[in-house]
Amino acid sequence: MTLRSIEDLAAAGLTERDPALEQVAERYAVAVSPALVELIDRGDPDDPIARQFVPSVEELVTQPQERADPIGDLAHSPVEGIVHRYPDRVLLKAVHVCPVYCRFCFRREMVGPAGLGTLTSAELDAAIGYIAAHPEVWEVILTGGDPLVLSPRRLEAIMRRLAEIEHVRVVRFHTRVPVVEPERVDAAMVAALKASGKATYLAVHANHKREFSPAAREAVARLADAGVVLVSQSVLLRGVNDDVETLAALMKTFVENRIKPYYLHHPDLAPGTSHFRLGIEEGQKLVAALRGRISGLAQPTYVLDIPGGHGKSVLGESAVTRGDGCFTIRDWQGQEHRYTGE
Ligand SMILES: *Cc1c(COP(=O)(O)O)cnc(C)c1O
Ligand code: SF4
What we know:
Layout: H1 6-11, H2 19-27, H3 34-39, H4 48-53, E1 82-86, E2 89-93, H5 121-132, E3 139-143, H6 152-163, E4 170-175, H7 177-180, H8 187-192, E5 199-205, H9 214-225, E6 229-235, H10 244-256, E7 260-265, H11 280-290, E8 301-305, E9 312-314, E10 320-322, E11 327-330, E12 336-339
Parallel strand pairs: 2-3, 3-4, 4-5, 5-6, 6-7, 7-8
Antiparallel strand pairs: 1-2, 8-9, 10-11, 11-12
The protein binds pyridoxal-5'-phosphate (PLP) and iron/sulfur cluster.
Iron/sulfur cluster (SF4) binds near residues 102 and 111.
Cofactor: [4Fe-4S] cluster; pyridoxal 5'-phosphate
InterPro entries: Aldolase_TIM, Lys_aminomutase-rel, Lys_aminomutase/Glu_NH3_mut, rSAM, rSAM_sf
Keywords: 4Fe-4S, Iron, Iron-sulfur, Isomerase, Metal-binding, Pyridoxal phosphate, S-adenosyl-L-methionine
């Protein structure tokens, strides 16, 4: 059973009974799925799985620069459930529930039992109507919350409606389910994610190699075998994956499981998450250290969602500097070379 309170977590030996933690749980949703409970090493006070999901009193500290809506979703929401920030793609947020609640979540003020809930059928009609009425929308990105908490029947209904919209060519899911609740990804779920005539992409959110249990690997394989194109999504997190070894191992694990590394997010300014954040320069160094050290297939793009709703920007250090009459290019070991071409 999913653990949903400090009492549940304490009974499972994963935390102490502490009134301050009760306060955290009142403010931000708590859920740790059975698959994750299995993965936590209770003997390790720095366990990277526990750190992502078990509440900590540090969450009571809110810094002035932190925001309830750190990436500015609300500024670009023309109708309930739709975020339309870039011309050719929209987010469709049908549900604001997740199978687990990450302690660093960028939408932590919107998700959970006290969050924005699930779109009503009238709201879903209006959201799909918006997509149908905007021929520039080439891609629909189902996110939330976690869209894979919906039943295969409901997902299939959404996919059938998107399939009817000629200008939508690609449907992308962002989800943590294959890793945190792998048993949900059964044949019916896999079938529901596909829509006739459209390409289905699915971004798997994972932040540490240890999240890839044998069951998670099998769930991912079922998706890949069915022709769903898999990409990754991770958050750079202090105390979880903020060293080169751990990041390299995570990215290689994605590739071994047929998941192409896509984004490594700089942590957002979500309330009560300062203990997870590191500096941009530290992040740039880590990402630069991956280059050359591990396969080109395993390189993620390091990005920040600019607070205020201005979209994502790449944070990688540039390898190129312009000198007089030529460029200087830095190689993966830090050596500089003159490039005299154009
Ligand atoms: C992140 C995001 C996307 C997807 O961006 P990509 O760079 O295409 O992955 C689209 N819309 C919104 C509002 C987003 O926040
Ligand atoms: S799965 Fe995503 S939306 Fe849900 S709690 Fe984690 S980061 Fe937030």
